[in-house]
Known about the structure:
- It is built from two helices and 33 strands.
- The protein has helices at residues 2-13, 386-390; strands at residues 48-50, 105-111, 127-129, 132-136, 142-146, 151-156, 170-175, 178-183, 187-192, 197-203, 213-215, 218-222, 227-232, 238-243, 256-260, 265-269, 274-279, 284-290, 309-311, 314-318, 323-327, 333-337, 346-347, 351-355, 360-365, 371-376, 393-399, 402-407, 411-416, 422-427, 438-440, 443-447, 452-456.
- A five-stranded mixed beta sheet has the order 1-18-17-16-15, with no helix packed on it.
- 41% of the residues are buried.
Amino acid sequence: MKSLFLIFILLIITACSFDNKTGIWKDASDVLVGNKDTQSIERSNSKSRFEDILIKKEIFNEEKNSLNNFNLDFDNSIVISNWLEEFGAPNNNISNISYSGNNILTSTSRKLSRFPMNNSNSDRNIIFYNNNLISYDQKGKIFIYSINLKKKIFEYNFYKKKFKNIKKEIFLIVSDDILYVSDNLGYLYAINLKNNSLVWAKNYGIPFRSNLKIASNQLFLANQDNVIYSIDIKTGEKQWQFATSITFLKSDFKNNFALKVVNNNLFFLNTSGELYSINYVSQKINWIYNFKASSLSSNLDLFSSHPLVLQDNNLVVSTENSLFHYNSISGIKNWGFPSSTVLKPVLTSNYTYILSKNDLLICIENKTGDVLWSKNIYKNLKNSKMKIKIGKFYDLKITNKKLNLFSANGYLLSFNYNNGNLNLMKKISKNGIKSKIIFLKNQMFLINNKNKLLKFN
C-alpha cells in the first residue's frame, strides 16, 4: 500500500505546474528544474572524523550551586525588528533578546487559519516581516496577517485541489522583500511581498526537508535524501549541489543548516548524523564529522539531534545523549558533555544553556565545558502536581538576561541566568501554546491552540 501511495504522489508531482498570471498550475513543463548538469562539490582533501554519539560517561544528573558573589559576563540584549527565518538568525541563535518583560497580554487576533490540533509546534513555521505575520494553513495556503491592521492582507494558494488532503510541510524565509517557500512535495517558489506576485517556481521532484538559509544571492536547502542545493535566488536555478550520506529511516529530526556569514561557512547536520562545514563561495569542504560510531554506521540507524547553534566561534551540536562543543573554524572539538537535551540550546559568547530530559536547567562554560550551575526546575514548586499542569516545554529563550521556558500548556517559567533560581511562574496563555515564541521590538508573540496570535508587552 505504501509503494502504491508513493507512486501516486510521484505521478501527481510530475504532472502539475502553474499559470503565470494567477499562480494556479496549468502546464507541467513550466516548473521542471533546468540546469541538471550543474557541478557538484567534491569530497577530495576534506577531513572526515568519527564521533561517538554517546560519551562514555554516565548521563549528568546532579544539582550544582553557583559560586557565591560570582556574576556571569553576559551579552548585551538585542532589539529584534524582523524575524525572517525559522530560528530568527542565520546562526540559529540569539543570545539575549530585548523584551519589556511585563508579560501582559495586549491583543488577541481572530482565528488565523485551520490547523490540525494534533500537529506539533515544530511543524508550524512562522516568521515576521514589516509588522506582518507570515505563515500557512493546513492546505498549504500562505497568508500574511497585519499586526497593525489586525487582519489578513494577503492569501495565496500554490496548490491545486487534488493536493488538499496531503499534509503540507512548509519552510519559509524572507530576504529583500521576497518570500521563499519550500515544501515536502519538492516545490520551491518565490513571492514578491511588495506586489504579492509569484516571481518563480520550480519542481525539484524530491521532498525538501530542511530549514532555509540565504547568503551571497544563494538559497541553501536540502531534500529528504540529504542532498544540499545552492539555488540562485533571482531565478530559482540550481547553482551547485552536494550529496551527503542518505538514511532510509526518518526520525523527527530534519536536516539543519546554520550560517556564519563572516567567513562564508555553511554548516549542515544531516539525518545520517554527519556534520559538514562548507565554504559556500569557494564550494570546498572545510571538515566533516560523523556522529555515528564507526562500528554502527549502518544506514538503518536512526540519528536524532536538535538544530545547530552558533555564537562567535562556538558551535554546539546536541545529539540524543550528548552535547558537543567545537571551534567552528578549525572543527576541533573543545569538549563533550553527557546530557540529553529537551530543546535547542541557547549560546552566549561565554556560556551554553540547556534543559535536560531529567529536568535540569544547566549553565556550561564554553571554554572549559565545566558546569557552572545546574538546577532542577521543579524542585522549589510547592504543588507536586504542577509538573503535569505545566506540560511539555516547547521553547527556551533568553530575554534581558532571564532564562525563559515556555510550555505547551501555556506556562512561562523564568530563571535567574546567574544561578538558575526560579523568579517567575505564570500561565500566559489559557489556551496553551502552539508555536515557537518570537520577540519583536520589545514585544512577545505566540500562537495558541486556537490558532490565534497573542501579543504581550
